[in-house]
C-alpha cells in the first residue's frame, strides 16, 4: 500500500507539471515549490523553537488563525511556521504577520518529509480540519513530535471508515495523532468506531475568528448614510446564479424606499461589476464611486472592492450568502455573528453551521426564484420574524465561541 500511495503522489506531481503549461493555479503550485529546500533554510532561524501549522487552503487558514494568534500571544517564545498546500491559500496569506515563516508544503514524499523536518525541527505540529499526508505524518510519529488536528470533522464516506484494504491501511495514520480536536459528536462516534479515543469535541474555531472580526469591524459612515432608515439586505460572495435571482427580486420590488441592497459579488472584475449594473433597473452605484455621490438616492450599492465584506454585515438586517447554486455556500458565520437572518442556495448540506441554523430557523435555504421571493417577503414584511431569526443567529454564535482557548489549554497544559 505504501508503494501505491507513493506512486499516486508521483503521478499527481507529474499531472500538476503538465497542467502548469496551461493552468495558472498549477503553475503557481510548481513555481512556489521551486528550490523549496534552499528557500526554507534561508527563512528558518536555527536557534528558534518552532510550532508548525498546516492549512490546505484559505478556508482552513481562517479556522487555524485563531489558534495561531492565541498561541503567539500566550507563548511568544515560539516562532510560527505556516504552510499551505494550495495557491489559493498561500498567495493571499503569504505576508500574514501572525507567522514568522509562510511557505508551501512540499509534495508528500518520504525524502521531502525528512528534509523539511530536519530544517524546521518543530516542537508541536497542528494540521487544520483535514490533510492526511502519509509520509509527513509517519515521519512526525517516528520522531515523537506531537501532531494535533484542529476543527476536524469526519464523515462516514471517508476511507478511514471503510473496511476495504485501502481503508484499513489508510486509517492507521490516524493513530499517529496526539489528539483530535473535532467539531461534532458524529465525528467522535466515527473515531470511536475504529478504536480512537483521544479526541475532544471542541467545536469550530471559525466562531472565535468571526467573533474577533465583529469586535474589530471597520466603520463606514458613507454606508451608514446609504442605509438611512431602510431595511438592508446584504448579498455576500454572490455568483451569477445568485445575482440573477436577487436582481429579479430587486427589479420587481415596488417599495423602493424601505428596502435597500448591498451586493458584494465573489468576482469583482470590471466586466462582472458592469454586468450587474446592466441587469439592474433600480438606481445603483459602485462602492468605489460613492464618495461624491448623493448616496441616499440609490437603492443598490455594489461592492467592487475586496476585504471589507465582513465589516459591511454590521449594516445589514438580512443576509444572502452566495455559492449555493454552485459547489457550496460561502462563509455564513460572518453574517451570523452580526445577528442576521441568512438565506442561501440549495447546496449547503456539507456545512454544519448552515444545517444547524436552518434547523433552528435562523437560516432559510432556497431552491429557485419563487422560494427566494417568498422568503424575503416573509421576513421583510414581518419585523417580528426578522427579530426572532436574528436572535437565533446571535445565540448560535455566542454558544459556539471558546474553541480556541479549549485547544490551547489542553495542548499546552495551561
Automatic annotation (TrEMBL):
List the InterPro entries: Glycos_transf_N, Glycos_transf_N_sf, Kdotransferase
Give the EC number(s) under which this enzyme is classified: 2.4.99.12
Could you say which enzyme class this protein belongs to?
Answer: transferase
Chain ranges of the 3-deoxy-D-manno-octulosonic-acid transferase N-terminal domain: 36-208
What is the stated purpose of this protein? Answer: Involved in lipopolysaccharide (LPS) biosynthesis. Catalyzes the transfer of 3-deoxy-D-manno-octulosonate (Kdo) residue(s) from CMP-Kdo to lipid IV(A), the tetraacyldisaccharide-1,4'-bisphosphate precursor of lipid A.
- Family, per entry: Belongs to the glycosyltransferase group 1 family.
Per UniProt, the keywords (alphabetical) are:
Cell membrane, Lipopolysaccharide biosynthesis, Membrane, Transferase
Q: What name appears for this protein in its UniProt entry?
A: 3-deoxy-D-manno-octulosonic acid transferase
Naming one, the record's GO cellular component terms include: plasma membrane
- Molecular function as annotated in GO: Kdo transferase activity
Give the metabolic or biological pathway. Bacterial outer membrane biogenesis; LPS core biosynthesis
Main localization, broad class: membrane
The keyword Glycoprotein is annotated on this UniProt entry: no
Q: Which GO terms describe its biological process?
A: lipid A biosynthetic process; lipopolysaccharide core region biosynthetic process
Task: Quote the catalytic residue positions.
Answer: 60
* Compartment(s) of residence: Cell membrane
**What reactions does this protein catalyze?**
lipid IVA (E. coli) + CMP-3-deoxy-beta-D-manno-octulosonate = alpha-Kdo-(2->6)-lipid IVA (E. coli) + CMP + H(+)
Please tell me the species this chain comes from: Draconibacterium aestuarii
Amino acid at each position: 500500500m505504501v508503494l501505491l500511495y507513493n506512486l499516486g503522489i508521483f503521478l499527481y506531481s507529474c499531472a500538476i507539471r503538465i497542467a502548469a503549461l496551461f493552468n495558472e493555479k498549477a503553475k503557481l503550485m510548481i513555481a512556489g515549490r521551486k528550490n523549496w529546500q534552499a528557500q526554507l533554510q534561508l527563512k528558518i532561524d536555527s536557534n528558534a523553537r518552532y510550532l508548525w501549522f498546516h492549512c490546505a487552503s484559505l478556508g482552513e487558514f481562517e479556522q487555524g488563525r485563531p489558534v495561531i494568534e492565541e498561541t503567539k500571544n500566550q507563548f511568544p517564545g515560539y516562532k510560527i511556521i505556516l504552510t499551505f498546500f494550495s495557491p489559493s491559500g498561500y498567495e493571499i496569506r503569504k505576508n500574514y504577520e501572525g507567522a514568522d515563516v509562510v511557505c508551501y508544503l512540499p509534495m508528500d514524499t518520504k525524502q521531502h518529509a525528512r528534509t523539511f523536518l530536519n530544517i524546521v525541527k518543530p516542537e508541536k505540529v497542528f494540521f487544520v480540519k483535514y490533510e492526511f499526508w502519509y509520509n509527513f505524518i509517519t515521519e512526525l510519529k517516528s520522531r515523537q513530535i506531537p501532531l494535533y488536528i484542529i476543527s476536524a470533522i469526519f464523515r462516514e464516506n471517508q476511507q478511514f471508515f471503510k473496511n476495504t484494504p485501502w481503508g484499513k491501511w489508510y486509517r492507521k495514520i490516524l493513530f499517529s495523532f496526539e489528539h483530535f480536536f473535532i467539531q461534532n459528536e458524529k465525528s467522535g462516534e466515527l473515531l470511536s468506531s475504529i478504536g480512537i479515543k483521544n479526541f475532544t469535541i471542541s467545536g469550530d474555531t471559525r466562531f472565535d475568528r468571526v467573533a474577533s472580526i465583529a469586535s474589530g469591524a471597520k466603520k463606514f459612515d458613507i454606508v451608514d448614510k446609504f442605509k438611512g432608515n431602510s431595511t438592508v439586505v446584504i448579498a455576500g460572495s454572490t455568483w451569477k446564479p445568485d445575482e440573477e435571482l436577487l436582481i429579479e427580486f430587486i427589479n420587481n420590488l415596488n417599495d423602493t424606499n424601505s428596502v435597500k441592497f448591498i451586493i458584494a459579488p465573489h468576482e469583482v472584475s470590471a466586466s462582472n461589476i458592469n454586468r450587474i449594473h446592466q441587469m439592474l433597473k433600480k438606481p445603483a452605484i459602485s462602492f468605489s464611486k460613492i464618495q461624491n455621490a448623493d448616496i441616499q438616492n440609490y437603492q443598490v450599492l455594489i461592492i467592487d472592492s475586496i476585504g471589507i465584506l465582513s465589516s459591511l454585515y454590521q449594516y445589514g438586517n438580512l443576509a444572502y450568502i452566495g455559492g449555493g447554486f454552485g459547489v457550496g455556500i460561502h462563509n455564513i458565520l460572518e453574517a451570523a455573528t452580526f445577528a442576521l437572518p441568512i438565506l442561501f442556495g440549495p447546496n449547503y448540506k456539507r456545512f454544519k453551521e448552515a444545517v444547524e441554523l436552518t434547523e433552528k430557523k435562523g437560516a432559510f435555504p432556497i431552491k429557485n426564484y419563487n422560494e427566494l421571493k417568498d422568503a424575503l417577503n416573509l421576513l421583510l414584511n414581518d419585523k417580528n420574524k426578522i427579530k426572532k431569526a436574528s436572535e437565533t443567529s446571535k445565540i448560535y454564535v455566542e454558544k459556539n465561541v471558546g474553541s480556541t482557548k479549549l485547544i490551547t489549554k489542553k495542548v499546552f497544559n495551561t
